[in-house]
Amino acid sequence: MIQFDKVTKKYGDKVALDELTLKIKSGAIFGFLGHNGAGKSTTLKSLVSIIEPTSGTITVDGLDLATQRHAVKEKIAYVPDIPDIFMQLTANEYWSLIIAAYSLDAEAVAARRQELLDLFEMAAHQYETLASFSHGMRQKTIIIGALLPDPDIWVLDEPLQGLDPQAAFDLKEMMKAHAAKGKTVIFSTHVLDTAQQLCDELAILKQGEMIYNGSVADLLAAHPQESLETIYLQMVGRQSAEGHLVADLNGEQHE
Ligand SMILES: Nc1ncnc2c1ncn2[C@@H]1O[C@H](COP(=O)(O)OP(=O)(O)OP(=O)(O)O)[C@@H](O)[C@H]1O
């Protein structure tokens, strides 16, 4: 179980995340939705310790992230939204780094590594540098690295962006398979069909505040004959380029 309790992140005066309180059950596929700048990446980066919240607490299986960071990090693997990291390394060197960082037995993960290489058609590219890869190939390299430790919690920030249709399909199947093993998958997306297909539960963020948290099934049941896309757009509302609400789908002015 992951618990956010009144987690706030401020950048100067800007409140990127405002007292986020929610629970994510083990074994769930949990999605974060929200317009650009809503606070999705801030939430995920807080969970994986890339940024430190201004206030509030995050606990993972009862471990406090602020004081037991190392123990929490061992449970988590993260796929960032921008995969432009370790560009000078070859894919193989990157995976070796992950194996060392998580203290994995290279022989024990060899079969898993090969399976992932074959699935993502990366075997022929393993000795090439990340700098020479396309966005999608870098994304696949990082996804393979994240899965090598078979993490209890797999966190992915907009993971489908830049993947070709086959890789996107395979990734979605992997996310389902990971959760089916009792592990937790947390991701952000702008692709509402994907959220509808995959998520057990979701949170919708709007300008740093959570405006919905619950199951996709409950949300759809409360709005019969509507898709997640139309429900989401009605909840979040249309916004001007400056971020002000201008109208909902019915054209009603809100601000
Ligand atoms: N390093 C930073 N310095 C200042 N402001 C930041 C920083 N990182 C994020 N922000 C601000 O925090 C808010 C939330 O950003 P965040 O990246 O979490 O949004 P997001 O929901 O992931 O958006 P997107 O869908 O565009 O990726 C935005 O207003 C953003 O401008």
TrEMBL record:
PROSITE patterns: ABC_TRANSPORTER_2. This is ABC transporter ATP-binding protein. Keywords: ATP-binding, Nucleotide-binding, Transport. Pfam families: ABC_tran (PF00005). InterPro entries: AAA+_ATPase, ABC_transporter-like_ATP-bd, ABC_Transporter_VariousFunc, P-loop_NTPase. One of its GO terms (molecular function) is ATP binding. It comes from Lapidilactobacillus achengensis. SUPFAM superfamilies: P-loop containing nucleoside triphosphate hydrolases. Residues 2-232 form the ABC transporter domain. It comes from the Bacteria. Gene3D superfamilies: P-loop containing nucleotide triphosphate hydrolases.
